[in-house]
Amino acid sequence: MKVITQCEDPLLFTKYFMRDCKDFLLFAKYYFLTTNNIKNPNIEVEVEV
Amino acid sequence: MQRLLSSENSLLGDAIFRGTFSLYLDKKFSDTFLKSVVDTMSKGDRERINCFLKEFKCNDDFSFENLNIIIKIYNNHIDGTDNYLEKIEENYLNKLQQVECSYLNICNSLKTNKNYLRDLKQKSEQLLQSRPIFEVVGNLHYLMTIDEIKENLASSLKNVRILDPYEFSNLNFCDQWFECKSSDISRIFGAKYLKRKFSENNILSFDVPEFIIVTENYNLNSNKKNLKVKIHFGKDFPVAHSIFNAKIYSRKIIGYPVANQHQGNHILQHLGYIDLVEMMAILSKIVQVRHSLLILRLIVLT
């Protein structure tokens, strides 16, 4: 795997990283859990319909 | 050896990056140092590996200086066993550092470039839309905010009738509906998905069930109703699971089951069609056989 440094174009970097869809989806999941501080794999949301 | 997750550099010290990459490492280590293998090691080796894994979880400034030693202990153990087990590859640490670099780059870009998140969202949707299950569990992905998840679910339920118990009891032909055994919301999204696919493929002979949600959670002074939906975050995308304080009703289908006659239909096969009536018959046979075996065993025992 080619490692692209952070000073390069981020989209170009993402293109390389996301060649493996699984890697990208995993990153997205961990990013979501961290930014929302979710510890439990199940949460309840209230949806207004 | 280069330290991972070091706080020496301000960028590396970013909480979002550190949290995200820690979750990656946690999963990676549990997939690498298999519990079934570690449990068969000598007491000393087992304690060393378990101590390493515990320390990593508890300590934010954890250093990886011990990782090579731990890998060596693990691989030596595998060399000494007769079972076919995979050794940890030599460039394991390099790969971790590459992933660390990738996570760091993306987290920094997300923090500094607003358009970057939009581009990643688009990419995420493109990747997931090729999987039918994505639509059936709510069209949700992890680059959405919680509010976006709520909006998306509300939008997916736009054409579903949501009634309070009083409205439902006053419904004409109330007896044409039956209560579903569970409040699994994917049955509603699944029907919507099939309807869209049938329409796209110009299949007019198949229909899908119609559903009504009857919720106890409503405000008499408002036209809006609130649904409490359970979301699961264990898969590649968030999964809308079930609705609390609500019942799902399905319209009764009048007629004879004909699903068996269409099992060869290539579009149904492509959509992952399963004949539940037939499956229930198979399950019922299995249960009957198990029940018979149980009775036989009881007779033998008595």
How many E strands of chain A? 1
**Helical content band of chain A:** 40-55%
Structural class computed from helices and strand pairing of chain B: alpha+beta
Instruction: Please summarize the sheet with the most strands of chain A.
Output: none
Beta-strand percentage of chain B?
Answer: 5-15%
Q: What is the rounded distance between the termini of chain A?
A: 46 Å
Which chain pair has the greatest contact? Answer: A-B, 37 and 58 residues
Order of helices and strands of chain A: HHE
Q: How far apart lie the N and C ends of chain B?
A: 67 Å
Estimate what percentage of residues of chain A fall within beta strands: 5-15%
Spans of chain B with pLDDT under 50 lasting ≥5 residues? 6-13, 292-302
Q: Count of helical segments of chain B? A: 12
Q: What global shape of chain A is seen?
A: elongated
Number of strands of chain B: 6
Query: Helicity level of chain B, as a percent range?
Result: 40-55%
Mean pLDDT of chain B: 80
Tell me what the structure shows.
The complex is a heterodimer of chains A (49) and B (302). Chain A has 49 residues and is of the alpha+beta class. Chain A is built from two helices and one strand. Chain A has helices spanning 10-17, 21-35, and one strand at 42-48. Chain A is elongated, with a radius of gyration of 15 Å. Residues 1-10 of chain A have low confidence and may be disordered. Chain B has a four-stranded mixed beta sheet. Chain B has a two-stranded antiparallel sheet with strand order 4-5. In chain B, 51% of the residues lie in helices and 10% in strands. In chain B, strand 4 (226-232) and strand 5 form a beta hairpin. Chains A and B meet through helix 1, helix 2 and strand 1 of A and helix 1, helix 5, helix 6, helix 8 and strand 4 of B. Strand 1 (42-48) of chain A pairs antiparallel with strand 4 of chain B, so a sheet runs across the interface.
